[in-house]
Amino acid sequence: MLNEFSHVFAFFLLAIIFVAGGIISNYFIRPHKPNELKLSIYECGEDPIGSSWLKFNIRFYVVALIFILFDVEIVFLFPWAVVYKQMGVLAFAEMLVFLAVLIVGFAYVWVKGDLDWVRPKPYIAKLDDLISRDKPRIIPRPVPTMAQPVPEEVVAG
Amino acid sequence: MNNTDFIAALPLIILAGTGLLILLWDAFEKTPSRAPLILTMAGAIAAAIVAGINMTGPASVAFGGLLYDNAFSNFFTIIFSAATILTALLAERYLLEEEVLVGEFCALILFAASGMVMMASGADMLVIFLGLETMSIAFYVLAGLFRTKTESNEAALKYFLLGAFATGFFLYGIALIYGSLGTMNLVAMSNIHSVTTSGPMLLLGLILLIVGFAFKVAAFPFHQWAPDVYEGAPTVVSGYMSTAGKAAAFSAIVLVFSSMPAGALAGGAAKIQIVIAALAACSMLYGNIVALSQTKIKRMLAYSSTAHAGYLLLGVAALNATGVAAIEIYAAVYLLMQIAAFGIVALLEKETGTGLNLDDYAGLAKRRPWAAFLLAIIMLSLAGIPPFAGFFGKYYLFLAAINAGLTWLAIVGVVSSIIASYFYLRIIVLMYFREPLHADDGIAVKENNISYIAIGLASAALVVLGLMPGLLTDATGYFFK
Questions:
Q1: Which of B1, B97, B353 shows the shortest C-beta gap to A127?
Q2: What's the average model confidence in pLDDT over B274-292?
Q3: For B95-136, what is each residue's pLDDT tens digit?
Q4: What interface predicted TM-score (ipTM) does this complex get?
């Protein structure tokens, strides 16, 4: 019984045998003469400075996430470009909508300062500001008993 | 593709579009204002109106078999819009006092709502999955909205890790069902007449699907995340997650299970029904019994939400016309009760400072007579006392179970309801017949607070729907004889 799924399974098995077979046969055939230089971490021919397990700035991840956004956009643009001639104006309008949604996200990220290396502190609307804008009335602020002291950099606006 | 497709998807487009608009507004507007909340409500009201108009039109399937446009999908769209409006009303004062990002909150609840609409109207398993993920990702972020509070961060991380795991189960389930039926489209699936490869693969797929759903609705063996997440998340968000999110998951369960081809479940159907019935019975008993011993109101509501998921699963186990209509009715009623309950918790949490222990509710009737009165209505409705809507919701669910020959399950439901009435009524006893433990802390009584409008509306709806249950049964298009 060789249906479509069996072909996939056969491919899967072959892939495993190909990779594992290469590594295992290599292990038996290759000469085995380790020395200190061979076992050290390769850093473009330089002497390694330290462990590669170190903390990265969290900003890298934000930039990586935004990069993925546009990576996916390009992936969607390719099939669109292929069928563009047959689809005509409708395809154009649909891609405009898709791009508009992405651009809103991009604008949000840009204006909020997430593309800057040092992110500006977020502005959080405060009740006092709002109330002072409205008609004057006096509402005593509740005493924050249970709330933990809010870190300074978050409060600043 | 034509105009009717876009009209069918219009509620979805309005909700998502308003969310995008708020994101843009939030990026460029620097002065504080309530505009995002007003925009959220406007978007949700528009979506509800369009869904209401669509509901009266003929049923159809839009976008070449991807989105349903029928009474069921539009009913749930209206429910989700109502939840969004109530949440926005409740969130106004709460968010500003807790000093979180209002614009982001509004955009996220709208994105979550658009995901829910996708789940309730998905005619293809991939659309349902897409909706589930849109909703869940918005919820993960919403749970961690208090960025400086440890509990909130813990809630977000826990919810995210467990939710991502449950999504895996759900996706495997879809893959196995596709493997055995050859299609992921629900319309095509229900038209299959002879199923050749029914058997363990389909059964396993359905079980995995149930696991994924049971996690999202916090049913018994998959409920452990719920108390911690509901406690740590902002209270208004807990109210939104535990009602609208649950209703969305149930709408998707009903869609998938009622589309299974008749032949596919032959032999397996009984087993699936037993699995769901067991989940329902365990959730009802476990949720209500554990809620008895809680001393914190948010945890108590979390465990009782597990029990309510059990009641709703009772309708899924029955899976007849009565069951589907009963799920629609109870989802709507439960949404009003639970959002209003969390709304009052959010109010008192501010007013009495700590205010999250059950003891803090002692003597509330003297200090906050209106809050106590509204909470009493909500608790009576949650307990299922006749004049309120909660009673009729439960009645139809039990009726559906009995019609489907699951009398034992209905008995378990009634027994667990009696257990539940203890901890619901205890709050009323605490509020009206006990002296306050702490002296009043002298905080201004915010009787003109906008939250009271939302809670009052929800409570009034509970009374009206309790006195005239015909309003809801007509809307579901099913007439109880």
A1: B97
A2: 92
A3: 777 666 788 899 999 999 999 999 999 999 999 999 999 999
A4: 0.77
Residue B24 with chain A: CB contacts under 8 Å: 104, 107-108
- Please tell me the total number of residues recorded for chain B in this structure: 481
**Shortest CA gap A150–chain B (Å):** 7
Half-sphere exposure of B285 (CA within 13 A, CB side): 12
- What number of other Cβ atoms are within 10 A of residue B297's Cβ? 25
**Distance (Å) from the C-alpha of residue B350 to the closest C-alpha of chain A?**
8
The dihedral built from the CA positions of residue B108, B111, B117 and B123, taken in this order, carries a sign that is negative
What tokens appear for A30 in the block? 């290759």
Question: Against a cut of 0.90, is the pTM above it?
Answer: no
Q: Is the pLDDT of residue A22 over 80?
A: yes
The predicted pLDDT at position B440 comes to: 56
Which stretches of B182-259 are DSSP H helices?
Answer: 186-190, 200-216, 225-232, 235-240, 246-258
Q: A23-27, B319-323, B349-353: lowest mean pLDDT where?
A: B349-353
Residue B15, chain A, CB below 8 Å: the answer is no
Could you give the percent of chain A with pLDDT greater than 90?
15
Read off the tokens for B389.
């809507």
From A44's Cα to the closest Cα of chain B, the distance in A is: 37
A155 contacts in B (CB within 8 Å)? 99
